[in-house]
Amino acid sequence: MPDIRAVVLDIEGTTGSMSYVHEVLFPYARARIGEWFTASRGTDSWHAVVAGVRTHLGSPDLDEAGVRSALTGWSDRDVKAPPLKMLQGLLWSSGYADGTLHGHVYDEVPGVLAQWSRAGIAQFIYSSGSVAAQRDWFAHTRHGDLTRRLSGFFDLETAGGKRSAASYAAISAAIGVPAAQTLFLSDVAEELDAAAAAGWLTTGVRRDGDHRGRVVPGHHTVSQLDAGLAVRAG
Question: Disulfide engineering: 140 pairs with which of 90, 96, 123, 191, CB 3.0-4.6 Å?
Answer without folding.
Answer: 96
